[in-house]
Amino acid sequence: MIRLAINPLTWTNDDMPELGAETPLETCLAEAKQAGFAGVELGNKFPRDAGTLRPILARHDLALASGWYGSRLLERDVDAEMAAAEPHLALLQAMGCTACVFAEVSRAVHGERTTPLSRRPVLSEADWTVLTPRLDEMARRIAARGLRLAYHHHMGTVIETAAEIDRLMTSTGPAFHLLLDTGHLTFAGGDPVLAARRHAARIAHVHCKDVRAPVMAQAKARDLPFLAAVLEGVFTVPGDGCVDFSAVFAALPGYEGWLVVEAEQDPALAHPLTYARMGHDHVAALARRAFAEQP
Q1: pLDDT at 294
Q2: Mean predicted confidence (pLDDT) in 183-192
Q3: What is the DSSP string of 161-185?
């Protein structure tokens, strides 16, 4: 079954908490439902225990689609990482999630406001031999908890480019899955349609993020930090940028899971409910045709 969710970044930003700081969680949830969504991902204003979170989401008739976890497997072993991830995994399990959004953030620069993206970390051969077996083991252990590790390639991190995604997927086993983020892969110079075709069988979660091509070109030309590019407006919701979501969905036959509208923008410049509706309606219309069902 295909369901549509939205990330609360539309209303309030995790990496730049001053963006949308004044917006309460209840507004995010009420407007997500008003825009037509069936679920939401976690954000920095969400309580992190199921007993508190469950009735809040129930009031708005929303499910929890998943939530981001940043790992440091280049710096610590799997036992230590599993211990660090335990509260997050327990919350996702208790809330009925099927996937864990998972990204390696060792050495990452995406949250650094003055570090340009050209200085993002690149894995050495020695790093690959450390990271991929640990990621593979994490995926197996998370699978034993009833969740799929959905790896989130991300600008400013060690897995950013299409080539890095391909190597990661060929270096890991069937328990390891991919989160396809259309916006991040486009910004990284990749083709989300090609990636969808190549890895369709192991894509467990999709972030539907659009890109304003002229802003992206300027951000690259000026070698901006990631958050500076966000503030310039590099990302937007589906239907407002250059990503061909019809082709992306066509490359995912048989996909079952969440399609998550996500766009880091300044809510003072991009009215959250307006953009939430725009993203929902664009994705819903295309998903109905691609997956032959009403999301």
Answers
A1: 39
A2: 98
A3: SHHHHHHHHHTS-TTEEEEEEHHHH
Give the rounded percent of residues in the chain with a pLDDT score beyond 90.
98
295 has pLDDT over 60? no
What is the dihedral sign for C-alpha 286, 207, 56, 24? negative
| Average pLDDT of every residue of the chain | 97
Mention every residue, 6+ apart, whose C-beta is less than 8 A from residue 81.
Answer: 71, 72, 73, 134, 138
Mean pLDDT of 270-279: 98
User: Can you read off the two tokens belonging to residue 15?
Assistant: 């990496």
The predicted pLDDT at position 293 comes to 53
Q: What is the token pair recorded at 8?
A: 């609360």
Produce one character per residue of 258-291: b if its CB has 16 or more CB atoms within 10 Å, e if not: bbbbbbbbebeebebbebbbbbbebbbebbeebb
How far out from the chain centre does Cα 244 lie? 18
**What is the predicted pLDDT for the residue at 292?**
78
Give the whole-angstrom CA distance, residue 270 versus residue 108.
27
Q: How far apart are CA 18 and CA 243, in angstroms?
A: 28
Answer whether 53's CB lies under 8 Å from 59's CB: no
Q: Which helix (H) or strand (E) holds 188?
A: none
Whether 149 and 177 have beta carbons less than 8 Å apart is answered as yes
Domain 2-291: top CATH class: alpha beta
Give me the residue spans of the domains in the chain.
Answer: 2-291
Encoded amino acid at 203, one letter:
I
Question: What is the predicted pLDDT for the residue at 272?
Answer: 97
β-pair type (257-261, 2-6): parallel
State how far the Cα of 112 lies from the Cα of 99, in Å rounded to an integer: 27
Give the three-class secondary structure for 211. Answer: strand
d(CA 39, CA 95): 12
